[in-house]
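B., you asked whether I could sanity-check this one before it goes into the benchmark set. Here's the sequence:
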Amino acid sequence: MKLKEKWNNVASKIKFLRKYNYDINKVVGVKGKERYILYANKKLLRIYRDDLRSTPLINTYIPIENAIFYNFELEKNLIEKIELDKFIETKVYEETGINETESYIIKYKIVDLLKNDKKVIVETVIVSESIIKNDFKYILDETGYIDYISFPAFSYRSLYQENILTYANDMFVVILEDKIFITFYSKGKLVKIVTISGGLDKIYDRVSKLNIANFDLETFKKLLNKKGLDQENYSSNEFIVYNELLKEFNTFGGIIEDQIKKLIEVYNIDNIDRIFITTKFGNIEGLDNYYSKYLNIDTFDFEFYENYNLDRLPIDPLLFLGMLETHYAYKYSDFKYNFSLFLREPTFFYRPSGQFVLSVTAATIIFSVVPLYQYINGLVYQYKNNHLNSKIQKYNKDISALVSKKSKLENQKNKIETVITKLLNKIKKDKLLINELYKFKYSYLPKSQELTDITLIINKNKVYIKNLNYKNSEFIIDVFSSKDSNIANLIDDLTHNGYNAYTDSIKLDNKKYISKIRIKE
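And here's what the prediction gave me:
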């Protein structure tokens, strides 16, 4: 080991000789007057009340509205032939129409997932340096530095790096005042950034037209956070508000479906496994459950910090993501997506003046105390050798125990996988039927009582529903029964109860009698 490397190892363990006086396991997130501290190694969030100019890393994030987004295709064979950073910077200034007299920070991600395997997509996030200097001046005035400034589209990766999310094809949606911000991830990596016009302002204007007494922006926020799209939260005279919200979020749902289709058409991605959705005003009550059924995709809100936030602190989820990203970036020296222009200064011995003093002092010590150095060096090696031998013995014991468990676990795994496969097939079929029933019920509320009466008559005759639709003023019900007479009795019973019911045929299929019953209004 070279002398410089040995010195760095020793210096990192001595507080006053460290290059920086920060603790990577403590991150303070700052947003206005809100200050929270993340104890990364303990997975714990707390309110921070101490001085910002201290050992915890300082993080804040750039609001989505303050960034510019641009993407373009690039031939793969050009990547090695060009100066990529300079090429992307020139492309951004030429194509986006940004002010060429102003300086910008440009961060980018090269995405190699196109169906056209000869090209890649370059996703860029562009932020004016003036935003960094002016919008975060209140932090800089207190500390003189910000260790990490994050942007949400890049921060999502920390969820996978910190094992909060498993790898999947994910869609992150943030509904802002005048736009919808969408980010796609696949296997923990950013795939695509999309912004769509339309947002909370449109919903607010629509609800305002209902002329609700004392309705203002704060009331609107509470409406979304407390009642949202959970129908049970509304009284009968409030149902008109629920219907207006439903219309707008159905429109947003259509936008989400459209973006997923566009993604699948262009990228080597077959489906979206999960959707995570929130708004500028926070999570919307019931929206995750509603979209899970409406879109038939598992949907969740942005409470990624659930296991960290034992005190249920009202932290901005995008700030929490930035804090996670900061910890990861400093732990693994990965600063590719850090927008900060004002980093913490090194400690004295790593500044030019300090290094001069250190060099002179080190030279004096080395040349005058060589025997002492060799003796200490020998002790260090002896300590390391003993420590490694102890670890080897422990690992050997662990390996023996793991080998003995391996065969048992493999047998259990095979059995479990067989059961899971059967259950997944059953769940898939049940989920499709439940989803159809749900959509039917809530799309045609005036028919719900009539449908209930029909269902009771069907059940009474020991006939079972396989599928149900309503189209052109007609119920179309696929049914099955163990006896053909049950289906015939059902049609008679429906007719006696005033329903115009008929069927074209009753067939025997796989030991069951099936029929398609039509009930006209």
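One thing to flag: The mean pLDDT is 87. Otherwise nothing jumped out at me.
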